[in-house]
Write a structure and sequence with these properties.
Distance between the termini: 51 Å
CATH topology of the largest domain: Spore Coat Polysaccharide Biosynthesis Protein SpsA, Chain A
Radius of gyration: 20 Å
Number of helices: 14
Structural class: alpha/beta
Order of helices and strands: EHEHEHEEHEEEHEHHEHHHHHHH
Oligomer: single chain
Largest sheet: 10 strands, mixed
CATH class of the largest domain: Alpha Beta
C-alpha cells in the first residue's frame, strides 16, 4: 500500500447542504498518496448519506457517537489520519484546482507548517469580498526562530482553520486539550511554543471561503471580544507589542469596539446582559455599553460612519466592511 503523504481532515456537523460541493472541489485533485478523511460529530441531518454517496477508496467517513465540538473533532481527525501531514480543511469551503499540488510541493521543500491563502466570497458565492486574505505577491517563508514575525503577519488569517497544513507528528507532540473550547485549537497547538521546522505561507489563494456561513456566527461577540484575545495573550514567548498588533487584551472595554460589534449586529442587549451586568467596570462605562446595545442599528451605523472618518483610513476600511457585510446578510 502506498504511503499516505497528506490527509485532508474535515470535521463536520450538520453540513449536508454544503459538504457535497466541498468534496466535489477536492476529489478531482486527490492522488494515491492523499486521503480525504471526514469526521462527523454525530450530525442529525443526512451528512452521512451525502459523504457515503462518494464511492472512492481514498475517502474515509467516521461518524462519532456524540458531538464533541470543533476543537475536539479536529483533534480526533488528526488522531485518525494516516498521512504524514494533515490539512485541517472546512466543510463548506472550496479548494481551487492546483491546491493539493502546491501543498505537496511545499511539503517536499521541507516545510513543517504550510498556510494556504484564500479568496473570500459571499455566502451564495456570487460576489468576491476579498481577493486575498493575506495580501502578498509571493510566497513567504519563516525560519523556526521567526515565530513572532509569523504571528504578526499571519495570525489574524490563521484564525481560519482551513488554511492550516501541519506535520501530524508536530500536532500530536503538543498540548491539545487545554485549548478545547477556545474555538481555535490549531492556533494553540501552533503557537504554544516555538516550532522546530520552517513555515511557508502560500500567496496564491487556493481556497475559496464562503463568508457568513460559520456555525459560530451567532456567538461571534463572545469569540472575538473574549475567547480570541484570551488565546492571543496566552503565549508567553510572544512579546506584548506583537500581541497588541493582533488585538487588545480586553477589547470589550473599548467602546469603539462595541460600536463596531453593534454595527455588525453581533452586540445587542442580550450580549450586554450576558457579559456586562456583573463585570468590573465603572458606572459611566456600563451606561455607555448599555446605550450602544439598545441604540437602533441604523443610528449606530451613522455614528460609526462619523467615528470612522475621524479615526482615519484603517477605521474607514472596517466601516466599509461592515457596510458590505450588512448588505450581504440582508
Amino acid at each position: 500500500m502506498k504511503r499516505i503523504l497528506l490527509s485532508i481532515c474535515i470535521a463536520t456537523y450538520n453540513r449536508a447542504e454544503y459538504i457535497g460541493q466541498t468534496l466535489d472541489s477536492i476529489i478531482p485533485q486527490l492522488d494515491d498518496d492523499v486521503e480525504l478523511l471526514v469526521v462527523d460529530g454525530a450530525s442529525p441531518d443526512n451528512t452521512a448519506d451525502v459523504v457515503q454517496s462518494y464511492a472512492d477508496p481514498r475517502i474515509r467517513y467516521v461518524r462519532l457517537p456524540v458531538k464533541g465540538g470543533v476543537d475536539q473533532d479536529y483533534c480526533k481527525a488528526v488522531e485518525l489520519a494516516k498521512g504524514e501531514f494533515c490539512w485541517l480543511f472546512t466543510d463548506d469551503d472550496f479548494l481551487r484546482p492546483g491546491a493539493i499540488s502546491a501543498v505537496k510541493n511545499a511539503i517536499s521543500a521541507g516545510y513543517g507548517l504550510i498556510i494556504v491563502n484564500a479568496e473570500v466570497q459571499d455566502k451564495k458565492l456570487g460576489v468576491i469580498l476579498e481577493h486575498q486574505r493575506i495580501v502578498i505577491r509571493d510566497n513567504k517563508s519563516y525560519a523556526p526562530n521567526d515565530m513572532e514575525r509569523l504571528f504578526v503577519d499571519a495570525l489574524s488569517y490563521m484564525s481560519f482553520i482551513g488554511a492550516v497544513v501541519i506535520r501530524r507528528s508536530i500536532w500530536l507532540s503538543r498540548k491539545q486539550e487545554s485549548y478545547f473550547g477556545t474555538e481555535f485549537v490549531h492556533v494553540g497547538v501552533i503557537f504554544q511554543k516555538p516550532l522546530t521546522e520552517p513555515v511557508l505561507v502560500i500567496a496564491e489563494p487556493f481556497i475559496i471561503i464562503r463568508y457568513g456561513n460559520a456555525h459560530w456566527t451567532s456567538r461571534s461577540f463572545d469569540i472575538w471580544m473574549f475567547k480570541w484575545p484570551k488565546l492571543v495573550w496566552s503565549f508567553d514567548h510572544i512579546t506584548q507589542a506583537a500581541k497588541m498588533k493582533i488585538c487588545e487584551r480586553e477589547p470589550w472595554r473599548n467602546l469603539g469596539n462595541l460600536v463596531t460589534q453593534r454595527t455588525f449586529g453581533a452586540y445587542s442587549i442580550k450580549s450586554y446582559r450576558q457579559f456586562f451586568l456583573t463585570v468590573q467596570a465603572g458606572s459611566l462605562w456600563k451606561f455607555c455599553a448599555w446605550l450602544i446595545a439598545t441604540c437602533p442599528r441604523k443610528i449606530i451605523f451613522v455614528l460609526y460612519y462619523l467615528y470612522s472618518r475621524i479615526r482615519g483610513p484603517e477605521c474607514r476600511a472596517v466601516f466599509d466592511r461592515c457596510k458590505r457585510e450588512s448588505i450581504y446578510r440582508a
